[in-house]
Write a structure and sequence with these properties.
Blueprint (H helix, E strand, L loop, with lengths): L14 H22 L6 H17 L4 H13 L2 H20 L1 H11 L6 H16 L2 H19 L3 H18 L4 H9 L4 H28 L9 H13 L8 H12 L3 H19 L1 H4 L6 H10 L2 H4 L5 H7 L4 H25 L1 H10 L5 H19 L2 H6 L1 H11 L4 H12 L10 H10 L3 H4 L4 H15 L4 E2 L5 E2 L5 E2 L8 H16 L9
Antiparallel strand pairs: 1-2, 2-3
Helix pairs in contact: 1-2, 1-19, 2-18, 3-18, 4-9, 4-13, 4-15, 4-18, 5-6, 5-11, 6-7, 6-8, 6-10, 7-8, 7-11, 7-17, 7-24, 8-10, 9-10, 9-23, 10-23, 10-26, 12-13, 15-18, 20-22, 20-23, 20-26, 22-23, 22-27
Length: 521
């Protein structure tokens, strides 16, 4: 007679057990970054915390197989973002070789004066972030240059750093090349350009407000303290080593066209890379290809970057900028972190940690404004407690997805909300990967610069206030309620077919009950 298998009872996690994996992560990050200071990454703390999450889940009746399935499922949802990240490495290296990024810096510096430094600098950081798809790359290139120039202008370094962060993260959010932008769209199961379109509705107005504030601060700057020697040094080093004619901006124009025509991200990036490589061959042959163009040389450029290995300029700042273009190899640190962070989120979900900590909140959410606030607060909690922006995006997504469908909201409304807090507040905390990176690049604690990062600081408040007033809302059927309370028809955002049908039916029922605005009202 066959022996019957014993079915283990799955028990709810008590709050103290649910907090253990998170507490483990926080303790390890604080110990590494603050006490021992001998390991600065989030990777291994994530691995250990993931093991703790699995152990807790198994102890309360879940199987290792089921928890692993949750981990694999979460990683699977981000595979497109991971592939895009790999190609972003190609793009940064090729844009640097084409002279596109150096030209952006060169011509940007020509525009600077004490009065316009802050608003123009913010815009230039935004453009650079859009071009390269990375706030980290932007702060490490334009940010490094602007910090030195700001000192010469006599501007508060914290204000300069906040301006750099604001511009860099706006460009990052709007870029189809960005890892977080692709991750937010991926975990929300919506289209990349649907997501970008939705973000314009919150980040656009806060960017305008930030530019006004930076202009006011700039007009109060003391022009008598201006020292342009740093700008002259950087511009001279770039001009000595790169052909800076306007045609080197072709790769950037291609990226803009890719955004406008909504080309899929992967082929769009690869098209821009091809254009950038050809541009480097045409205009930067003496610097980038002194020994001639070879297939192996192209592969080495895209795989490893390495311009700083053989281009040594007269400026240490420019040499540091060139060193940031690490090709595909340079993105592997981030890719590893994305996989671990998303896997950690899957482990928390599979082990029952997320349900234990947050499930009770969902029953108290009955309006879009409440849902937006809860999603953003959860994202900020994950940034602070779990140590990484990828978790601030990926953990709240499965937790609140059904609530967005229940309220008849579009999936790009969810993806926008994930980024409004999960991405923008990630550089606020010194112990997160973002906070640690930006602190090291900008030379000060996030607690010092964040009060002046007006876009990052104000964006969640703007999103929360407008949604609570029933404005600035994207609905499942494609309609949009604007700031004036008018609801107009539009194209539905991409979403899973079954969930989209449920959301549209729920929206129709809410409209019939007078709990959601009708089109034209």
């Amino acid at each position: 007679m066959a022996k019957e298998k014993t079915v283990r009872e799955v028990r709810p996690l008590p709050k103290w057990a649910a907090i253990l994996p998170i507490l483990t992560m926080v303790i390890l990050m604080v110990y590494d970054l603050v006490i021992e200071q001998n390991y600065e990454d989030a990777h291994l703390p994530l691995v250990v915390a993931m093991c703790v999450a699995v152990a807790v889940g198994v102890a309360y009746g879940r199987t290792f197989k089921d928890i692993m399935a949750a981990i694999v499922a979460r990683i699977s949802n981000t595979l497109e973002a991971i592939l895009i990240l790999m190609t972003v490495g190609f793009l940064v290296a090729s844009f640097m070789a084409a002279g596109t990024i150096p030209a952006l810096i060169y011509y940007g510096l020509k525009l600077l004066s004490p009065k316009v430094f802050l608003p123009v600098g913010c815009l230039l950081c935004g453009i650079t972030g859009l071009a390269c798809g990375s706030s980290w790359t932007t702060t490490a290139t334009m940010g490094v240059a602007f910090m030195g120039i700001g000192l010469g202008l006599g501007i508060n370094p914290a204000l300069t750093a906040g301006m750099v962060i604001s511009g860099a993260y706006v460009g990052d959010k709007f870029s189809p090349l960005s890892d977080t932008t692709n991750l937010a769209a991926g975990v929300s199961n919506t289209g990349l350009f649907d997501h970008v379109r939705a973000m314009v509705s919150t980040t656009g107005p806060t960017m305008i407000l930030a530019l006004v504030l930076y202009t006011i601060f700039g007009l109060r700057a003391n022009a008598a303290g201006y020292d342009d020697s740093k700008a002259v040094e950087i511009m001279g080093a770039i001009a000595d080593n790169f052909n800076l004619n306007v045609l080197v901006f072709l790769p950037l124009i291609v990226i803009i066209i890719v955004c406008v025509v909504k080309m899929p991200a992967l082929p769009g990036i690869l098209l821009a890379v091809v254009v950038a490589v050809l541009t480097s061959m045409l205009f930067q042959r003496a610097t980038v290809w002194p020994d001639g163009v070879t297939l192996g040389g192209i592969f080495n450029l895209l795989h490893y970057g390495g311009l700083a290995d053989y281009i040594e300029t007269s400026s240490e700042d420019v040499n540091a900028i060139l060193g940031k273009a690490g090709g595909m190899d340079g993105t592997m640190w981030t890719i590893n972190l994305v996989i671990l962070a998303v896997g950690y989120g899957g482990a928390l979900e599979g082990a029952g940690v997320i349900d234990s900590l947050f499930a009770g909140i969902k029953d108290k959410l009955h309006k879009p404004g409440q849902l937006v606030i809860a999603t953003m607060l959860t994202g900020i909690f994950c940034d602070a407690a779990l140590g990484d922006q990828f978790l601030g995006i990926s953990v709240p997504a499965p937790l609140y997805a059904d609530k967005f469908d229940e309220m008849g909201l579009a999936r790009n409304m969810m993806s926008r909300t994930l980024e409004d807090a999960g991405t923008l507040w990630s550089p606020m905390f010194p112990w997160t990967a973002c906070g640690a990176w930006q602190s090291s690049v900008l030379g000060m604690s996030p607690f010092v610069y964040f009060p002046f990062a007006f876009v990052n600081l104000l964006n969640p408040f703007y999103a929360a206030i407008t949604a609570s007033l029933g404005r600035n809302i994207f609905w499942a059927d494609g309609s949009y309620t604007n700031l004036f309370g008018k609801t107009k028809a539009g194209d539905p955002a991409e979403a899973p077919e079954a969930e989209h049908e449920i959301a549209v039916k729920n929206l129709e029922a809410l409209r019939e009950a007078g709990k959601a605005p009708k089109i034209g009202a």
